[in-house]
Design a protein that fits this description.
Elements (H helix, E strand, L loop, with lengths): L2 H17 L55 H10 L8 H14 L1 H4 L8 H5 L12 H8 L2
Amino acid sequence: MSYKGLLICVIVALGFQSCFDPAKPNYQYFPNMYEPVGYETYADTDAFANGIEAQIPVEGSVARGWEPYDYPDTNDGYEAAKAELMSPLALTDENVANGKELYGIYCAVCHGGKGDGQGILMTRENFLEFLVMPIEKSHQEVFTTC
């Protein structure tokens, strides 16, 4: 490439650079995809009739990933659910190994490897006893037999 060609390339590059204004960036296709619009939860808005951004969920709606069950939130409801509900997962070696791994990651830190409430955080820190309760005996057997 000759010096003349190089000089032309430099002039064209400088010309493009001189036209760029940081206050006015180039056009964007669907700019909301790149620059999110932040809505305040309790801000005033014209989008809804009551003028509030936060809305109460529609009656009867169910949150994603949550399946309702027909047991009252009482001790009797707890005992009935414990007796009648069964896990949808099959009791296979793969599921047991996966559950043991997840328990070790997310639960054993507080509840202990045996579910006795003596996890590493519980023994090192001064937590109140009611914050990390031992897992019931029926549930404990699942972890000690694996």
